[in-house]
Design goal:
The complex is a heterodimer of chains A (about 375) and B (about 250). With about 375 residues, chain A is of the alpha/beta class. Chain A has 15 helices and four strands. In chain A, helix 8 runs parallel beside helix 11 and helix 11 packs parallel to helix 15. Chain B has about 250 residues and is α/β, with parallel strands linked by helices. The chains are: A alpha/beta (about 375), B alpha/beta (about 250).
């Protein structure tokens, strides 16, 4: 046990002497939490709209006004022909073309029916889908507005309507940041835990210092504990900084129990530290370790439910996410921070993460050899 | 009767088809300075790593400080010190911190660590550098420091793998003074080197060629046997036939 004391002392000295790691530990959570939730936003705004108005009537003017005042669209072209407008799509100056045929106003009033054409640039699928949906909704609303204008009240009321009222729970303003922040916290903890452990041990291999350690009578598990404990503590520190930043900047205060949150993160950290340790036993250079960790991180993050909901992934991808520790942490972070879920709610997640921790660390310890 | 502190019998290490160390048999006696010579790629480092418990032999036997090299590597490690070819103390720790760390790892009590650190720093004349990072030290000092750290826990044997590579003759001389000091205190020294003047300082030397030990005797007897005026010539006669090189 005395050996661990000396190992920890040495490890902390090295960490605190390495300014770039210290800076990363402080700057990374602040920067990521400041920038990402504001920038990586799935709300689609600023859809460029080109209008081809063949009617030039007051009705068509009113409709265009209604569309542009919605805040989602920016009128970038007001063209005389569809070809002209389509050229704007080709040059990326427009995302959506709305063509209003001549006789729009007349047909609407006399025949009670008029067709419009919406052409969408579908390269960015999300923008295209949402753009045309927004546009259709605005036009439908406009349609109702004008019907009130020229139809007799009695006839209008004949149309049976279902009115749906919805209420948004846990994130009443549908604020995307509230959804992102807990997820980014999860990624932060993973990066610090996994990368730093893997790189630290491989660095000792590169420098040859690990050989000097291997020739001492130090016990294998003492050495490993001496490596894991410092990064476990660092992971918790980074998590704390992250929580403070999300409180100060976004006013997000965990609804659930803080102790539960820290308890889960602590066990989760053991799992990612185990992964880092395992990777380090397979690598001889920091470059290799970096690439392998990066490979895992990319998959973990993209298949972790940070940006895209796991429920809407294809079946096979959902199976993969079950083997992704990050997906459990992201889920639990959102559950506890936003919904106030309790120990019972996260117990299944906790069990799986504990299995990850045991499995990865056992494998790493088996694979770590003092002699070859 | 001299007591053998290292005893190997047909010790062999294979890497696939390549036999790095081929059936070496030797005995090293307590308190001896044993020179383990050989050209580059002759298999010296591999042999030494097996004796230190860093590498598991493919076949053959070895007993180090009374412990078996297969089953009792951790006991061997308590009784040996090792200094590798590559400087392997922590560059981002100070001189004093390195000494304390390795002292602690070898299980020395705090008061002994403190006493030994002072002693060692005075002996090496590093009073002004004690609190400076090791990375700033000149190579010669780093090597002296590694040696001192390797014998800090008073091991029975210290293994030195090309300890004086790349330093000037004066510093090498000082380094050998340290080796003599240690040997006088009863530490057996097992050292590899490419400098034949250093070979002359050893009690006995062995010369490895292509994984085998081709000669083993005192420098004096070897020179007589090969009718050579210096160890340089002895080495040349044996090693020029070598097929392996780096």
């Amino acid at each position: 046990m005395r050996a661990i004391k000396f190992l920890l002392q040495k490890e902390f000295r090295q960490i605190f002497r390495n300014r770039s790691i210290l800076a990363m530990i402080l700057v990374m959570p602040v920067m990521q939490l400041l920038i990402l939730p504001l920038a990586a936003n799935y709300e689609v705004k600023n859809i460029y709209l080109a209008v081809v108005d063949h009617d030039h009537s007051s009705y068509s003017q009113k409709m265009i006004e209604k569309i542009t005042s919605s805040g989602y669209f920016r009128l970038t072209g007001y063209n005389n022909s569809y070809q002209e407008a389509f050229r704007l799509i080709e040059s990326d100056d427009a995302d959506v073309v709305l063509e209003i045929p001549s006789g729009f106003e007349r047909n609407l009033i006399r025949e009670d029916e008029q067709k419009l054409l919406i052409a969408v640039n579908a390269i960015n699928g999300v923008k295209a889908n949402l753009g045309s949906a927004y546009l259709a909704t605005i036009i439908r609303n406009y349609n109702q507005d004008i019907r009130i204008d020229f139809m007799q009240a009695g006839r209008f009321n004949d149309i049976p309507t279902i009115k749906v009222t919805s209420s948004n729970w846990f994130n009443p303003n549908l604020n995307y940041r509230v959804y992102m922040v807990p997820g980014i916290l999860a990624v932060l903890v993973t990066m610090i835990g996994g990368f730093l452990t893997a790189l630290n041990i491989v660095k000792e291999k590169e420098a040859g210092t690990i050989e000097q350690i291997n020739v001492t009578p130090i016990r294998k598990h003492h050495f490993i504990l001496g490596k894991l404990i410092p990064f476990w503590i660092l992971g918790n520190i980074v998590f704390t900084i992250g929580l403070l930043v999300s409180w100060l900047i976004y006013g997000i205060v965990p609804v659930g129990n803080l102790a539960l949150l820290y308890g889960f993160v602590s066990i989760y950290l053991l799992a990612v530290l185990g992964l880092g340790l395992l990777v380090s036993t397979f690598c001889d250079t920091q470059q290799q370790a970096m690439f392998i960790m990066f490979f895992f991180m990319m998959i973990f993050i993209l298949l972790g439910g940070l940006f895209t909901a796991i429920d809407s992934m294809p079946e096979w991808a959902q199976v993969i996410t079950r083997f992704n520790p990050v997906s459990y942490l992201i889920a639990v972070m959102r559950m506890v921070i936003l919904k106030g879920s309790t120990f019972r709610d996260v117990l299944p997640h906790l069990g799986i993460i504990a299995l990850f921790a045991i499995g990865l660390n056992s494998w790493a310890i088996l694979n770590y050899k003092k002699a070859n | 009767m001299k007591e053998a502190v290292i005893k190997t019998e047909n010790l062999t290490k294979r890497f696939g088809d390549f036999i790095a160390t081929n059936a070496i048999t030797l005995e090293v006696y307590t308190g001896e300075i044993f020179g383990f010579l050989g050209a580059n790629g002759a298999g010296k480092t591999t042999a030494m790593r097996m004796l230190c418990g860093l590498s598991i032999p493919s076949s053959g036997n070895a007993v180090i400080a009374g412990y078996d090299v297969y089953r009792e590597t951790e006991k061997i490690k308590k009784n040996i010190g090792y200094m590798s070819q590559k400087f392997s103390l922590y560059e981002d720790l100070t001189v004093l911190e390195n000494i304390r760390f390795f002292g602690g790892i070898y299980g020395l009590p705090d008061d002994e660590i403190a006493r030994k650190s002072d002693e060692l720093i005075n002996q090496l004349g590093l009073q002004n550098e004690a609190k400076k990072l090791v990375s700033g030290l000149p190579l010669g000092w780093k090597q002296k420091l590694s040696f001192s750290v390797a014998v800090l826990h008073q091991p029975k044997i210290v293994f030195l793998d090309e300890p004086t590579g790349g330093v000037d003759p004066v510093t090498r001389r000082q380094f050998w003074d340290l080796i003599y000091d240690a040997a006088e205190k009863g530490v057996t020294v097992f050292v590899t080197t490419h400098y034949m003047d250093e070979a002359e300082y050893c009690n006995r030397v062995s010369i490895m060629v292509d994984g085998r030990i081709e000669a083993l005797d005192t420098p004096h007897n070897l020179k007589k046997k090969f009718s050579a005026s210096s160890m340089d010539e002895v080495f040349y006669q044996l090693a020029r036939g070598a097929k392996r090189a780096d």
